[in-house]
Amino acid sequence: MAESAKPTPQLELFNSMTKKKELFEPLVEGKVRMYVCGVTPYDFSHIGHARAYVAFDVLYRYLKFLGYEVEYVRNFTDIDDKIIKRANEAGETVTSLSSRFINEFLLDMAQLQCLPPTCEPRVTDHIEHIIELITKIMENGKAYAMEGDVYFSVDTFPEYLSLSGRKLDHNLAGSRVAVDTRKRNPADFALWKAAKEGEPFWDSPWGRGRPGWHIECSAMSAHYLGHVFDIHGGGKDLIFPHHENELAQSRAAYPESEVKCWMHNGFVNKDDQKMSKSDKNFFTIRDIIDLYHPMALRFFLMRTHYRGDVNHSDKALEIASDRVYYIYQTLYDCEEVLSQCRGENISVPVPVEEQDMVNKHHSEFLESMADDLRTTDKLQQKLEQQKKKQQQQKQKQQQAQKQPEEYIQAMFALETEIKNKISILGLMPPSSLAEALKQLKDKALKRAGLTEELLQEQIEQRTAARKNKQFDVSDQIRKQLGSKGIALMDEPTGTCSGRRGIGEVGRAAGRRASDA
């Protein structure tokens, strides 16, 4: 008798406030309220943004898989100094520019298979709520107005810097603003900024102006989720000043305000420096998916635990692309074998050994995810084990002469298990596996600067050289292709086998020999 699957382990998440993993228990049973800080849409989004939103998409998907009703809010900061500057340079309105790049961002998220949040509010639609919140903070004596500007007074809030753990004497005003000598404390930050010539503005009790950077998220999170909610997330660069200031604002206005779990993802680094637009050392999501399949980028970002920093390199992206191809090829081969059996009424149960394997994989997957979303390479290991198991099954079938239906049932169970887990991680392609494999192959050929015809020609030249025992020539062709990221595989049927319609051209372009 097969062992039954273990109960689902309870989810633990790392809380940036307490600096430790904690058991996740939502405030309302069965429901989760989550706020993640969104982009400032003045340009195409880079893969640092993809890192954050893929990480929280994995959390969103897993919470839904666990059966929670999730209210997920992710905002757009559609009024900001950078947007104003870029709009002026481009000769268009702030609304036009920000709306255009919001749409581009949403296209990028769809390509990466990030599920749409429940709500995606824009700052400019919530000016009324922002003004109300600033008024409340001032009424509580935690802010002051000066010449049309309004500043939060950090000296009136003893809890300030409790999230980041910084010391006030080491505190800086923040990277987005210059130090204002009129402030009572250099660490005081703007809640409302007086209008400047040629800038968008709204009327307020302090005169015409617009919101400071941090106040928006305090206002919108409270409006959609209440003053106390479950999860607040973003990149670790937001811990200070953005989230630190959010926390201060919210509690200054409403002391009962609380986030149960603060979560922060790591950076994407290039040359050991955080990738960012302001430093001009970034690759946009569009740059990457022009050369790599979007699921290869998603896999690349997920291979490192969400709290760790990802080191960007072409080699790492190549490896991710290879792994995704390996996963899809394995599932495609499985689909092809089982296609002749689907719809048949097979009454025999899944063999005990294979059912135990499925249950074990299911339990280990849940244990990994319950441990602060540990996604690193677990799936790849299981697929390799599945491949070996299938080979062993063929040998056993020849020796033991078991019923073929048992092995068919085993493959159905394994296929279902792997596809379910890939879907939870957001890695199942939106198209057919065959189409996804073709897309991966086409991207690999593009990176190598080759066409399918040119690659096939070189494969045939190498095959001829091997037949003529010109091994130095065949080795040279292999090395030349290898230097372009294409590894050839020699199989018993030849280098160009055309197995199941994929063929060596597809496998050469999409996989390295080390994954075979």
TrEMBL record:
Keyword Metal-binding belongs to the record: yes
Tell me the Gene Ontology biological-process terms attached to this UniProt entry.
cysteinyl-tRNA aminoacylation
Can you tell me which residues the record assigns to a coiled coil? none
- Domain tRNA synthetases class I catalytic per the UniProt entry, residue ranges: 24-320
Keyword list (alphabetical) reads:
Aminoacyl-tRNA synthetase, ATP-binding, Ligase, Metal-binding, Nucleotide-binding, Protein biosynthesis, Zinc
Q: Where is this region: Disordered?
A: 380-403, 484-516
The enzyme's first-digit EC class, named in words, is ligase
Biased-composition ranges, Low complexity, are 392-402
**Record EC number:** 6.1.1.16
Any GO MF annotation of the entry: metal ion binding
Instruction: Spell out the GO cellular component terms annotated for this protein, sorted alphabetically and separated by semicolons.
Output: cytoplasm
Query: Which prosthetic group or cofactor does it need?
Result: Zn(2+)
**Which family does the record assign?**
Belongs to the class-I aminoacyl-tRNA synthetase family.
PANTHER family, per the entry: CYSTEINE--TRNA LIGASE 1, CYTOPLASMIC-RELATED (PTHR10890:SF26), CYSTEINYL-TRNA SYNTHETASE (PTHR10890)
* UniProt-recorded name of the protein: cysteine--tRNA ligase
Q: Which organism is it from?
A: Oryza glumipatula
